[in-house]
Amino acid sequence: MDPMPWYLLENAAEIPSPALLLHRDRIEANIRQMVAIAGNPLRLWPHVKTHKLPELVAWQVGMGIVQFKCATIAEAEMVAGVGGVRRILLAVQPVGPQIERWVHLASRFPEIEWSAIVDDPGVVESLCNAASQSLQTPPGIWIDLDVGQHRTGIAPERVRGELLRSVRAAGPSLRLEGLHAYDGHLGISDCAERARLCNEAFAPVAALRTALEDEVGHRLTVLAGGSPTFAIHAARADVSLSPGTTVLWDAGYAHKMPDLLFQPAAVLLSRVISRPAPRQLCLDLGHKAVASEMPQPRTLFLNLPDATAISHSEEHLVVESPAADSFRVGDMIYSLPWHVCPTMALHQEVWLVENGRASVRWTVQARSRRISI
After folding, report:
1. Domain covering 12-20+261-367: architecture
2. HEC states along 33-88?
3. CATH code for the structural domain at 25-247
4. Secondary structure (3-state) at 280
5. With CB atoms counted within 10 Å of each terminal CB, which end of the chain scores lower, N or C?
6. Residue 233 near residue 241, CB atoms below 8 Å
7. What's the pTM value of the predicted model, to 2 decimals?
8. pLDDT of 3 higher than 80
């Protein structure tokens, strides 16, 4: 007898759909793989924006990972509430009221080392003023470098100007911790070309680090890359690493980067809610259940692999398949999200799958923009 496919649930009939299922064995294997690639868990600053779950932060802490990267104040508060966390980096430059929120959060958890990325002298000044009034221990700042994505950051050759002067003027209220170099534009399938472009983008970062250390008189940490370039940067012994999607993985990365041996661990459970025409099924897997910011396919069907999406709306996904007529209304369809990060943010709760059963519901705590602060 063939073994049951890994994604099938023994108790699927008990689970309302659409639902997002997280497979414990695969998540734990992914975290172990992250540590193995890094060589030391203390090199890792995993980004929590993918999963937004304190339970998964705790699992990582249990494997020796004690530093985390966040995109929002809520994510940072979520991480701070997990025992054993030592350092938290806010990886979106705080502006406006976010500065006071971040400083207030840091004041609530003085046992944690707090830091934020910056690329603007005015933000450095505002952070300096807020921190000097509220924090006993000066928080860290990381200079955010634009290494080719052209989204945030400052080009390495421009750092030693107004920005660096503002950073140096902020002492002792702020401490310059290092350089943040996110190369999210390098999601290239060809691993040799990805490595070549990654190394090319990193060269000015390494040069800047050497120059700045001579000027400021202390060692600077470099936090580099995301999931696609994780293994490339891991070969640099003096660089810290911040993969995020590696914890859950998804169909998009699995398709584009088969050289990265992580396992998709998040599965969407949906049901057939109508059969609108021959060879067609309508599923309860609309925009509000799976990320829809990209063209189809937005999900990879596991038990209907030849299905093609023909329409997608808020609560409905209509697919066409030669096998459609073998399904009835109420039958379950399993699929992998193409992009797991925004898919997680659509679900108020997820189910943990252990030994083939969805056993526990977890609230996706940091999908909220505000927890208490």
Report:
1. Beta Barrel (2.40)
2. HHHHHHCCHHHECCECCCCCCHHHHHHHHHCCCCEEEECCHHHHHHHHCCCCCCEE
3. 3.20.20.10
4. strand
5. N
6. yes
7. 0.97
8. no
